[in-house]
Amino acid sequence: MGVSGRAMLEQLLQGKTDPALLAELAKGRLREKRELLEKALTAVQGHHRFMLVQHLSHIDFLDEQIAKLDAELNDQMRLFRPS
Known about the structure:
mainly alpha; 4 helices
C-alpha cells in the first residue's frame, strides 16, 4: 500500500469523512486523480470502516512478521559473508 492510500485510510478510520479533504492527501501522480478519489471516498460507510480496521491491522501484523524474517535472514547470512 502506498503512502497516499495509507494516509487516506488512517484518516477515514479516525472518523474523517470529507472526501475532498481525504483526496487532498494524495501524493505524486495520484494527485491527478483527486476527482475520482473523491467519488470513491464518498461511498465509504460504517461497515467499510470496520473492514478497513481489520485489513490494516492484518497488514501491520504482516509487516512486522516480514521485518522479523528479514532480521533473522540477515543474521543467518552473516556466516556466509566475507570477513
